[in-house]
Structure formats: structure tokens, C-alpha cells
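Question: what's this shape?

___
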Amino acid sequence: MTTNGGFEPVFCPIVPPHVLDRLAQHADAGIADAAQRTLEHDALHRTRRRITALRSTAAPAGTPSDAPDRTIYDADHTENLPGTKVHSEQDQPARDATVNRAHAGLGATFDLYLKAYGRHSIDDAGLPLIATVHYGEKYDNAFWNGEQMVFGDGDGELFLDFTLPIDVIGHELTHGVTQHTANLEYYGQSGALNESVSDVFGSLIKQYALGQSADQADWLIGAGLLAPGVHGEALRSMKAPGTAYDDPNLGKDPQPATMDGYVRTSRDNGGVHTNSGIPNHAFYLVASALGGHAWERAGQIWYDVLTGGELTPDAQFADFATLTVKAARARYGAGDELQAAQKAWEQVGVRTL
């Protein structure tokens, strides 16, 4: 258990290790060193049972507020958490754009969960939202450590500031929502579902903030994160998994869109960042078939599954798919929503039980 009363957290960075592994072998010493430092840092956190909280994140007693409680810290390029407090909820915008983006991203995440699903913060009990910016030297990642968000500035050559894409912030905070609900194990198909749920709600948070419909959304995760000159649009594409980037430095996006391309590997916790493309694409298909705002019907079905109490920590793709069909029927009956869910999973090659 964590100090905030949730389940045991896992270390969930946004940039997959297979990308950093490749960069660590780069001929350019600057790129290789930044990637190697990031990998060493990430490996250290993966081996820890949990990260010790440096500030209590216990939710206040009583009825949770309908407003977020955000605090931003600055690590000043060290790896000391949480760092120096630089911004509180009631403060005016800071001079540091990174601080302001972190503050806004935490708020956008809070808003989507509250206004679309009636959820009060990450734990549904008003958990204060904490973030640390300017973490490490050229740190090429962002992560949720079970208690707070942490953002690197990127190396400036391949990755930019990790507060730039709002969906990255939403993705990482959603790992906290999963931690407090289904607590999906971070390995194999359950781990890929863990990653996919974060991509789904990360994308919905961006769409909600921009007021986009399903057909207006780009369905990219991390658009704006890759530096100019990198051959790619983002870290992942839910609309077309496997097409987000194809770059001499980063390699080619390995995500499959269907079970025909499912990757069996022991790396990256059994390919959690790779095989998540399959349930990601299923959600995109459901949302596109239903149209309108994806956080409404499609997002509601996924949220019902995540929070409904039937999704087990070791759930496989077929388990999750079956529950989405069940949730669609329970909430909407035998209509378009049910048909969209059934067809989407069939299209990606996942059987419903």
C-alpha cells in the first residue's frame, strides 16, 4: 500500500525503453549520454518497490472539492523530489512556461474526470495533484511515481519539454487512476491494457480541453514532443498504430493495430508499450463509429470497465473486451454502442467471451 492509501504503484514512464535503448547506442555522444542517463534512472525506479513520498498526498477529510488542489515544484535539474515549491493553486501564472503548462495539464486532467465521470481527482477523494518540473539533466521522460508527476526537459535534440503535450500529462496521471481502481499488473497483456487505458484517457483529456469531436481529434499521443527534424508526429498513434514515427535515430514505431502483429517479448515488461496499440486501436474504432465527443459514450464505457470492480489485475485483452461489451449493453442497451464495441474488438482480432 502507498502512503495515500492506494495500491502498490508501478513506475510508468511515457517514452518506452526500446526507444531509449536504441538512442543509448547512438554515435552522437550527447544523444547517447542523455538516453543512457534516462535509462539508468528509469531502471533504478523500476527496481524499487515504491518511491518514498517526500510530501503527504493524503486527501483532506470530508466532501472532496470540485476544484483541483495543484502544487508545482522545481527540481532545478537535480533528481531530488519534490524539489523547491514554486507554484500553488491560488498563485498567478509563473514566469516559467513549463510551470504553467504543468499546472494547466493537471487541471485539464482533473476537469475531464470530474465533469465527464464525476470523479474527484486521481483517487476519487480529492487527492492533491503534485508535479515536479525541470527534473534531471536532459532527462528524456515523464512519469507518475505513485504519488506525483515528474517531468524532464528533454535533450533538446530529439525530445522537447515533456510538459508540452497535454495528453502526456493526462496519460501519466491516469496511471494513478488505474492504480486506485483496477490496479492492472504491469506485465504482458494486463500491462499493455494499463498503458492503453492511459493513452485512451490522455487523448480524451486533450480532446476535452480542445473541445474536439472524434473526427476532429488527431488521436496522437505526444504530438509536439518530438524535436524539429525528427521524422515523426508523436510517440504513438491510436488511429494508425505503427505510423507515429519512422526516424533514423528513434527507429520505426513498432506498435501493431491488430492481434496479427502481436509481439511476444520479455523486454519492456512483456511489450507493454508495443502491444497497447491493439486496445488503443479498438477504442479509436469505437469512438469513430459513435462520433461526437469521444469522452461521452466511448469514454464512458471504458471508464465503467476501469472502475466497475470486475476488471481483475491480471486481465487479458479478451477479458477487457468482454467487459466493454457488457458495459455498453448495461448502460446503453442493444444499440449503436454495443454494436460499435463488438465490431471494434472483432476488427483488431480480440475475441469477446
Q: What stands out?
A: The two ends are 32 Å apart (CA to CA). Strands lie at 12-13, 70-74, 84-87, 129-133, 142-144, 149-151, 220-221, 236-237, 246-247, 251-252.
